[in-house]
Amino acid sequence: MPSYAGHETEFVAIGTAVAMEGLAPSANPVLCTVSGQDLAKLLAAGAIPVSVALGVSVYYQYTTARDTWREQSWSNQEMPMFTDSVYQTRHAAMRNMVHESVQAGGTGVLAHETKLHVYEVEVERGENDTRTDHVLEFVSMGTVISSPRQMPPLNIETALSLSTNALSLQQD
Amino acid sequence: MAETYQDLPEHALERLKGLRSQGNPEGVFTSDLSVNEYLLVREAGFEPIGLVMGSSVYHIGFQAGRWKQNMEMTVLSQAMYHARELAMSRLEEEAQALGADGVVGVRLHINRHEWGADLAEFLAIGTAVVARDKTANFRTFHNKPFTSDLSGQDFWTLLRAGYRPLSLVMGSCVYHVAHQGILQSLGNAGQNVEMPNFTQALYDARELAMERMQQEAHEEKAEGIVGVRVEEGSHGWASHVIEYFAIGTAITPTRADHAIEAPKLVLTLND
User: What is the largest CA-CA distance in chain B?
Assistant: First the structure.
């Protein structure tokens, strides 16, 4: 579990700055998490990456006596309160991501990361009552793109590679 | 007819309303497609409209296997089935609420995280899409949005070949493999022999999982299943308990001929 007690954390962002031929440098450079190849493909299809959007939500989940009782049962059942907190966390994070995308002026997000982490927290609630609460954390990150309603046709051809390592190429 | 989405939390619906749906074409779409997939899905005539998810945190019940007997652990099989179905049906409901024709790139995960011993989160996640051609029908025969675990690449190729995906189909079987007796172990000591008992158990379990998947495809009136994967897993159970899980995409033809353009032969210079 990340240390929430410490009040410092470090974020590192790294990338290569590029300039477009024949264009004056922009006051607000465009950030994108896609690779050079992907950038070329997007541009060929008339779409441009405009920004990076992040959606984060951290949720504290209180475990009730009823939850504990369900957890100790022998029969199959859903844990409705837990499912609900997963939903709350995920949707709050996604809402934030959509909000950021709208602000950046995009038409959509290609999220390359959508991850949920769950951490246990042991708590004492009075005598002989120790429960396990949970901290849920959902992080999504993606490239905001802006693309026209109509995409130019891509003229895709199917090819069969004769290279010996054709299999490993397919997985790219 | 007013549609109700009883299974979805209120805020899920709220978020979906903000996304681009047929009634709200100016919203932003979310997706977890890669750039390649995004381009191919659009090229295939679809527009991504939103990332859809379904999840269920599930408590898996208890069942003891008999030490010396091969048997299906029905309580556990049912748990794996029921929880995945809850997740899938919620994903379908979200897609339905968005007015989607289908969901591509569906992934089913079982996340154990730090939920506790018998708890697992079952998650289904994918990108809802709508067809640009409003006259074509891409819904299932039960009039639900299609679901598919095919990648954008496979999706494009499948459509090109004159098929369309119907539904993600799956089968699960949790099986207890019998332990062998001491006498039997001693008898085999120092020899290379097959363990027919173990082999049989693995066959049975795999067969049951495959059969259940086929049954689902049958109910969808599919012609066949593509991209089938059979996974073996032990979700924190005792050493002789395993799950066989079969998953694939049921498909149906969209036209009579399935000829595809002959692929061009290329030799790439990449290593």
Answer: 73
